[in-house]
Amino acid sequence: MSAVVVIGSQWGDEGKGKVVDVFSAQADWVVRYQGGANAGHTLIVDGKKTVLHLIPSGILHSHTKCLIASGVVIDIVQLAKEIDGLKKNNFLKDPSQLMISDKATVLLSYHKQLDQAREAFSKNEKIGTTGKGIGPAYEDRASRKAILFGDLFNTSVLKEKIEKSLKEKNFLLEHFYKQKPISAETALQEITESINILKNYCCTNSSHIIYKAIAKKEKVLFEGAQGSLLDLLHGTYPFVTSSSTISSSACIGTGIGPQNIKKVLGITKAYTTRVGAGPFPTELNDTVGDFLQKNGHEFGATTGRTRRCGWIDIPALKYAIRINGISSIALMKLDVLSGLETIKICTAYKMGESTTTDYPSSPGEIAKAKPIYLEMPGWKEDITTCLQKKELPKKALNYISTLEQHLKIPIDVISVGPDRGQSIWINSLF
Ligand code: IMP
After folding, report:
1. Whose C-alpha in 99, 182, 316, 380 is 20 to 30 A from the C-alpha of 397?
2. Residue among 21, 28, 41, 335 flagged as catalytic
3. If phi over 0 gives left and psi between -120 and 50 gives alpha, with beta otherwise, what is residue 73?
4. Ligand 1 site-directed mutation target among 129, 140, 244, 299, most atoms within 8 Å of CB
5. What pLDDT, on the 0 to 100 scale, is given for residue 125?
C-alpha cells in the first residue's frame, strides 16, 4: 500500500502546505478531499512565493498529478484564478496534471454573501469564519441542492440549478439578513469566464482513478485542509469548520476504502495557533504570545487575520493522535522558538479541583481547562540552517525528545524555516 494522509493536528495553519510540497517530489499523486478556499498554503520555492487555496501544493512538481476530489467545495472563480496564476508562473504546462471530480460541490458568490451576512448578523455568537462560503456550500450538499462541478458544463442544467437555489437564498438574503438579492443572470455571468478555463480539468469516476493508482502501487498523498480540532463532529463545536478534517475524511471525500491508508502524518506546530473564535487553553495574551505571533508571521494566508498564539498542548495533541490514528509527526516552525528564555509544554489540565490529561469533550469544559505546564530552558541559537538533527542545540533536542516521550509517537520531520530546504528528515514518508 502506498497511500499516506497528511493532516493538521491542531487548529489549522500547521504548515501542511510545505510538508505536502516537499513530499510531493516523491509522490505520484496529491489529492485534496475536503474543505475549500478557506484553506491557504503559502509556499516558498527558490525565494518565490505561491499561495494556493484549492489546488494541491503538489502542482509545483511537474511529474505529480493532482486531484480535487468529490468532498471539496470549489469556489469556481478562485480555482480559475489559481490555474491562471500557476500557468503565468510556468507551472501546470500539461492540463492532464490537474483533475477535478465532476461530483465536487460548486461554491458561488452567494454562498460567500450568506456566510458573511450570517457572521455580521450573529453579533456575540460569531464563529469567526473565513467568509469563504464554506458552511452554506456544505449545507447545499447535505440538503441535496448543490450544484456539482460536472453541472458547470451543461448550460441548461446549470441555469436551472442556479435559479432554483437562488429562490431560497434570495429570500434569506433579502428578508432575513436585509441584503441585496442576487439575480441568476449575475451569478451566471460571474462564472462564465472561469467555466471556460475549468472545462479542461473536469474528470469522472475520480474514486476509480485513485483506486487504480493505489492498486498500481503508485504513491498517493492525501492532503488534508484545516486542523483536527476544527472537525465538524470531533472539533471544538460550534467553533469548527463545516467539513470533516480528520484522516478518515480522506476515505469519504475521495471514495476509497480505509484499508488503503498506510500512514497518517500529523503536521504539528512547535507551539499552537488558532484563528477565529473558540476555546484555546494554552493561549498567551502576553509578550510571549506577541513574540510567537511576530516571529512566526502568524497571519492567516486566506484572511490576513492575526492568529492567536500559545504553547504546545499535549492533551489536545494526544486527542488528535487518537481520532486520526496519527503514526508520526512533522514538527513545524521549531525555529520560531529560538530566543525564548523558557519554553512551556502543557502536559495536563486542572479542571476545578481535579487534574486530567484527557482533552475535555465540550467547548465549555475546554474553556474551563487550566493548563499545567512543564517548563524547559529555551535556546538562543539560530537553527534555520541546521540540516541534520545532530546540528540542533542540545536544548532544542531536549524539547523534541520530551514531546516524543509525551506523545508516544516519533517525530519524523523537523522544519526549521519556510523554504523547502529548511527541513530535517528523520524518516521518509512513503
Ligand atoms: P469556515 O471554515 O470559513 O467556515 O470557518 C470556521 C472556523 O474554521 C473559523 O474559526 C476559521 O478561522 C477556521 N478555519 C477555516 N479554515 C481554516 C484554515 O485553513 N486554517 C485555520 N483556521 C481555519
Report:
1. 316
2. 41
3. beta
4. 129
5. 83
- pTM above the 0.90 mark? yes
3-state secondary structure (DSSP) of residue 6: strand
pLDDT, residue 343, reads 98
Distance 78 CA to ligand 1 centre (A): 17
Calpha distance 164→162 (Å, rounded) = 5
* Contacts (Cβ under 8 Å, ≥6 apart) of 176: none
13 is catalytic: yes
Contacts of residue 149, defined as CB under 8 A and 6 or more positions apart, other chains included, come to 74, 100, 101, 102, 103, 104, 105, 106, 198, 202
What is the position in ligand 1's atom list of the atom closest to the CA of 129?
5
149-179 per-position pLDDT tens digit: 999 999 999 999 999 999 999 999 999 999 9
Distance CA 416, CA 51 (A): 20
CB 16 within 8 A of CB 224: yes
Whole-angstrom distance, CA of residue 168 vs CA of residue 176: 11
Atom of ligand 1 nearest to the CA of 276: 10
Q: Determine the distance separating the centroid of ligand 1 and the alpha carbon of 208, expressed in angstroms.
A: 30
- Span from the CA of 156 to the centroid of ligand 1 (angstroms): 34
Q: Are 424 and 389 in contact (CB under 8 A)?
A: yes
Residue 304 backbone class (left: φ over 0; alpha: ψ -120 to 50; beta: rest): left
